[in-house]
Amino acid sequence: MAEFALDPALIYLNHAAVAPWPQSTVAAVEAFARENGLHGSQNYPHWLAKESSLRQLMAQLINAPNAEDIALLKSTSEGLSFVAYGLTWQAGDNIVSIAQEFPSNRIVWQSLQNQGVEVRLLDLAGSEQPEKDLLALCDSRTKLLSVSSIQYASGRRMQLEPLGDYCQARDIVFVVDAIQSLGAMPFDVQSCQADVVVADGHKWMLGPEGLALFYCRPALREQLKLNEYGWHMVEEVGDFDQTEWQAAESARRFECGSPNMLGVHALHNSLSLLLNQGLDEVATAIQRLTDFTIDQVDANHYQLITPRASDQRGGIVTFIVPDQDNQLLYQSLMEQGVMCAYRGGGIRFSPHFYNTQEQITAAFKQLKVLL
Ligand SMILES: Cc1ncc(COP(=O)(O)O)c(C=O)c1O
Hints:
Blueprint: E1 11-12, H1 23-39, H2 44-62, E2 70-73, H3 76-84, E3 94-98, H4 104-110, E4 118-122, H5 130-136, E5 142-148, H6 160-170, E6 173-177, H7 189-192, E7 196-200, E8 212-216, H8 218-223, H9 261-277, H10 279-299, E9 303-304, E10 317-320, H11 326-335, E11 338-339, E12 341-343, E13 346-349, H12 357-370
Parallel strand pairs: 1-11, 3-4, 3-5, 5-6, 6-7
Antiparallel strand pairs: 2-8, 7-8, 9-10, 10-13, 12-13
Helix pairs in contact: 1-9, 2-9, 3-4, 10-12
The protein binds pyridoxal-5'-phosphate.
The site of pyridoxal-5'-phosphate has 13 residues, from α3 and α4.
Protein name: Class V aminotransferase
GO molecular function: transaminase activity
Keywords: Aminotransferase, Pyridoxal phosphate, Transferase
């Protein structure tokens, strides 16, 4: 696919880490750089229109009712921190999550322990039905439940709807770290009833690091205490002479200062590309590739860590080569140009829709050579 013109020496199966940019995104960034060099911020109104359009694309991506519900933050970790330090906690409140979550979605909750908040972590290793087991950890003092839509190491996709149903019925704040889903498959914040959805743009969304989508249900937004202040988060933005101010009603209240316009131009292009392609089509292509990857794992008698059922996974396939140092194998694969990751004790392949079966075959061939 012409949009992906990677160095032919690479086989890029690492979209669950940091993705390469499409060529049109490279061009958008180059054009933005040239514009800055020639005209400075003369076209700032156009940049603002691009920023506003990005919010619309993000709303479309997660089926948010309103683009005003979306803030542009710098990372997933920042969004999770805004929730943790926006809520008011009482000693004895508890938070339910998963032990194997990416550290950003664990450390932030554990940081509340010095306020007497208990963090209850489900060990996925011993869980046949994680959704059921997560809910079994909840009680009348559970104030928040936080999961990744797809686990970064095992690749397990969580069934979000039953979690959302349960949380809504009990007034538990339901937080979804969707970084391993958005851009790889359709996502519907309304059907899963998440109160918060957060995801940085540098993985499946094919954007740069440092620009994240943060959705917060309006009713919760009003409850969250703000912890960052500045000119950009007030209702009357741009009226610098005004001495009275109030926080913006929209999710812009979480954006304290100047926007990341370079990131906006890049992510706008990458998201447009994915949405034009169609997330259903993207997801189907990824599933074909991950099915094929699992066939290769089986054919080589490697041990699959990712759940086999197609509705329990997304773009991640993690596996162990038995009786081998898998970390060393991963390092050797990387040296040979097979871009992958070592996660959860295994080798993680995460192909995006433009990868080919030939590339995956070649990656496994390389692995065999190394063995
Ligand atoms: C599940 C998950 N959450 C969050 C992140 C990254 O967080 P941040 O956007 O804060 O860098 C990753 C990156 O690997 C991840 O896999």
